[in-house]
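Reply to dn_fold:

You asked what the input looked like. This is it:
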Amino acid sequence: MISNPYLPRYREIEQALRARIADLKPGDPLPSDAALCHEFGVSRMTARNAVGRLAEEGLINREPGRGSFVAVPPSHRRANSLMSFSDEMRSQGRVPHSRLLRRELRPARPDEVRDLRLRDGELVVALIRIRIADNEAIAIEAVALHGRCADAVMHADLESGSLHQALRSAGFVPARGRATLAAGAASADDALHLGIPPGTPLLVERRVIVDLRGRPLESTESRYPADRYALDVDFEVEAARERTASRQQRG
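and this is what came back:
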């Protein structure tokens, strides 16, 4: 495996394991922490961090004393994590690709100036893609990227390839973000590209992603037909959390 100097080691291991999982069946074993340490030349903590992220996303099951095993593919994405669309669909055993409708350099709109911390008149790389799995349109996605990403994105393969992989390869590593979810209705354009009637209920996700230095990298709106996509949410009941905190303080 060729090391990417812009990517933390645990993320390199995580990506390598994602690729392996795509070719395995539920229940198949994964390398032990010790084997990963030997293979990648990392500490046990680094290996555990990589495997732990996959377990949090429901891609693997960790069984104490036995090891890690490929989980039954999740039907939905967890709301507290973001895989690339390509990785997400492959984890479900589906074949992803995209249809690129638009790719251009243009002045940022007011909302993009705000989200990406730009000055008025600065350029963004604007993309519109239909995200597809097994020949079914899953989403229409509008992306605005900071202009510094232009060289990495303007000529990248964004139909069979991954946008985030193109960014990572150029040193722009998506690290974390914030998203809001809302209900919407399909516009005429949504209906045309997603093959649904106008007015069909949509799940609308708006997110901003920053890089490893905390600089805004991407502002995206994804519009999903409500019957083709969903998010799973883990949560704590507030009263139970307060009781636990109170017991810890008394202890």
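The beta strands are 60-63, 67-70, 77-78, 96-107, 123-133, 136-146, 174-185, 201-211, 216-225, 231-232.
Hope that clears it up.
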